[in-house]
Amino acid sequence: MTVKEITDILEELAPLSHAEDFDNVGLLVGNPKQEVSGVLVTLDTLENVVDEAIQKGHNLIVSFHPIIFKGLKKITGSTYVERVILKAVTNNIAIYSMHTALDNSKMGVNAKICEVLGIQNPKILIPKSGTIKKLITYVPLKKVESVKKALFDAGAGDVGNYSNCSFSTEGVGSFMPGEDSNPALGQKGSTHYENEAQIHVIYSFEREKAILNALLSNHPYEEVAYEITTLHNTNQDIGMGMIGALPESLDEQSFLLHVKDKMNASVIRHSEFLGKKVLNVAVLGGSGAFAISAAKKAGADVLITADIKYHEFYQAEKQLVIADIGHFETEQFTKDLLVDYLIKKIPNFAISLSESITNPIKYL
What we know:
Udp-n-acetylmuramoylalanyl-d-glutamate--2,6- Diaminopimelate Ligase, Chain: A, domain 1; 11 helices; globular; 6-stranded mixed sheet; 5-stranded mixed sheet; 3 domains; alpha/beta; Alpha-Beta Plaits
């Protein structure tokens, strides 16, 4: 398989279009047409990870964090980033990063945290805005079902656990074919009236190109009339963080000890205990101070995240407990998630979980 064939599979889990604007995701180093001898999955791409890939004979590294965040003006080996890039290029190793694309996936980083902690029925905590679009088009009655099927096959009409969702109204359309036209219906120079259906379907924004291709390829008219609007509806499938419930409530200390054990956390920094039972838990892997307000609004008893600053703990405001368990600790199981996913999608292929230590933080 080529690099692109494998990264296409990864993008089924976490489309790159779902990443945040500030991020740098996708293929950062390497040729997408290169044949892959093996895949090494890591949280961070450091020199020891590249060395591990070389030792194992793998030439594609799938990394959660991108090794390149900003543009490089030179690559001389003077920084750890430059040394990684040089070593990867010298040894013909490709590097692919997923980062916030996977953060925003309903089966990504935060879903894995929920699985490890036993949090049930998790839902997106902060839905990503502007991700749902609506297509309206006009189709002759005889072609309605075939056009709808093409749109559904391309990914339109998915609403939560339902698919093939649409709405249609019937009416009469009119048009006059011009001299240079090639009409499927009607005659040049004469106004034609056709019984049509107005079809409404919604879709996730990353599917737009495929859906428009399906529409234009399957619609009988030479000129296809359609409208696209962006909706403000909440998208339950794309967004940061998750919130769900424990199987049974626990007191605050018992719950944080449970988190410390399951997440292999050396220490947990937290806001004051409120003397309440913990049932509803919000999680956000990585730096999650921006989720405090959403967690409170959603009724979370505890927010599990990382990188909380001194004054940000005050934002708990006796409404919930904020627990900072460490950046690495919140994201560490992402590697297992990706390895399991790839093995399921491409069994009998060389896929390895990196054994290299990449956590830069040590505890005394």
